[in-house]
Amino acid sequence: MVTRRNFLKNAGIFSAGLLAVQSDAFGFNSNIFEFPLKDFITKRPPLKERKFSSKAVEDTILKVKKQISNPELAWLFENCFPNTLDTTVEFEIIDGKPDTYVITGDIDAMWLRDSTAQIWPYISLVKKDPKLAELIKGVINRQTKCILLDPYANAFYKDFTKESEWKNDITAMKPGIHERKWEIDSLCYPVRLAHGYWKETGDVSMFDNQWKEAMKLILKTFKEQQRMDGKGGPYSFMRETAWATDGVPLSGYGYPVKPCGLIVSTFRPSDDSTLFGYLIPSNMFAIEILGYMVEIFSSKALKDDALAAEAKELQLQVQKGLNENGIIEHPKFGKIIAFEVNGYGSFHMMDDANVPSLLSLPYLGAIAADDPLYLNTRKVVLSENNPFFYKGTAGEGIGGPHTGVDTIWPMSIVLRAITSIDEKEIKACISNLIKTNADTGFMHESFHKDDVAKFTRKWFAWANTLFGEMILHTSIKYPHILKEIGN
Predict the structure, then answer these.
(1) Bridge pairing between strands 451-456 and 446-448
(2) What is the pLDDT of residues 362-395, one digit of tens each?
(3) β-pair partners for 455
(4) Coil, strand, or helix at residue 209?
């Protein structure tokens, strides 16, 4: 079984040397709007080989393509936007309920984070497509089963009797779990998906007793990882590995944190271990989704005053911890949001491409895109003051420890565009992304800052679908931009 880490370890960086790749630099100051003429043949699987087809999605592809002047951009959108449905979903009815297993791409496992993010762009289309609505309800049901199996795990198998290659990790592994890395966002994303679907449709049919138990378990797990008693709680993790970011110090509990209301995240959304346990972007995401839980359990159809009150109390505790510890004074930029803190006054200043990140916070609803605090933070993470911000002859963007130095994640460029309030910046991001596909027709996990032909993960459905979401977002909010990018 391939894993994210072993995929990089065994395969290294894919070389696409036979591809006809642009030789011109495409940094933000280059002539980004000039593209050569090419022939673009669809990279989608034949219709009979697609995992799932949605008329609403196909109609959206046709509609958006008509708004796009650049043929390569139109080709990329057609390939990427439906990639999750085309290649990664397995839908069936189990015990009378829809069930949808969603792999991340080249790894046969379902991440709670990735599966939500991959399906998220389709929520706005469910009213036009009942089959698509059932598919998304199936994801919610599958995520419920995963959370009930183990709320501390980040990735699962379809078969809950299957054993992982990581079964010897020094943590409470059990069959059905691919990897057991505790990440706050793993429990945030399912709430985001459930809330988003509910708000779009008003449908509460999947919010049964099992789902409610999963929500209670999320609250319980968050409170355990506040570590208010000064101890580590029930979760620890160690692995025999040469990869430093796969290990957790001090018997698997991480470096000490001072209880303050914030929630410990042992790992980041990149699946790399945190340096300081209070990962601020993930805590801000938790504040947001706890508000969703309050809203859900205050509604007439799902009213539960006790659960709503419990979620609200926890939200206020995390918010207080954020206000007191998560906002720091940068010597050059002034007040900004920290990446990680420990409650003792120490902070870690960086940003990672994976979501939640500091850059992505407006996308998650955690802060307004024009908030001065966010804009100050954005200046830092999109500059040399972020050790994982890279600029080269092939482009600029944020990477992270997961893929090593000098690697940029297209995901970070996508989020830069989605969260931007500057049309020129949005154009530059889209133009950069066109040139980073290395003639493959898809987005990748990362590419080398000086050579787009050196990339990791040729099949990474989250990045593909997120790119499609960004183009769809642009077609609604800034349709003229899609006309203005050169062809």
Answers:
(1) antiparallel
(2) 999 999 999 999 999 999 999 999 999 999 999 9
(3) 14, 447
(4) helix
Q: Which residues contact 236 (CB under 8 A, 6 or more apart)?
A: 170, 171, 248, 251, 252, 253
pLDDT of residue 379: 96
| Helix/strand number for the chain, H first, E second | 16, 16
Return the biggest CA–CA distance within the chain.
63
* Buried b or exposed e, range 408-447, using 16+ CB within 10 angstroms: bbbbbbbbbbbbbeeeeebbbbbbbbbbbbbbbbbbbbbb
Please give the structure tokens belonging to residue 160. 């809950």
Q: 486: burial class by Cβ within 10 Å (0-12, 13-18, 19+)?
A: middle
CB hemisphere CA count around 204 (13 angstroms) = 10
Closest CA to 314 of 294, 336, 298: 294
Q: Rg (Cα) of the chain, in Å, rounded?
A: 21
**Which domains are seen in the chain, by residue range?**
1-31+225-438 (1.50.10.10)
Quick check: 179 and 155 in contact, CB under 8 A? yes
User: Cβ–Cβ contacts within 10 Å for residue 87, how many?
Assistant: 18
Instruction: Give the span between the Cα atoms of 101 and 109, in whole angstroms.
Output: 9
Q: What is the C-alpha to C-alpha distance for residues 394 and 437, in angstroms, rounded to an integer?
A: 11
